[in-house]
Amino acid sequence: MDKRIGVIGIVIEEFESANKVNETLHDLAGIIVGRMGIPRPERGISIISLIVEGTSDEISAMTGKLGKIKGVNVKSALTKKMEE
């Protein structure tokens, strides 16, 4: 199946949700190419950016699972061109 490369931005606004986000990312680690996390305790948030490579279905499943976690906002941008 064709793969896409993309960026996923995650903003965690509730500290209690961080463990669930990390568990989800661990479960789906196979499509994560790179990860950068920036804690901002003075603002009460954490920000994670991911570089991912996977099928549209795999990436959509990841963003869907993350988006269902309370206090978590997720946005993604994917390449239009599919890699073989």
Automatic annotation (TrEMBL):
It comes from the Bacteria. InterPro entries: Acetolactate_synth/TF_NikR_C, ACT-like_dom_sf, FeFe-hyd_TM1266. Transmembrane segments: none annotated. Pfam families: TM1266-like. This is Iron-only hydrogenase system regulator.
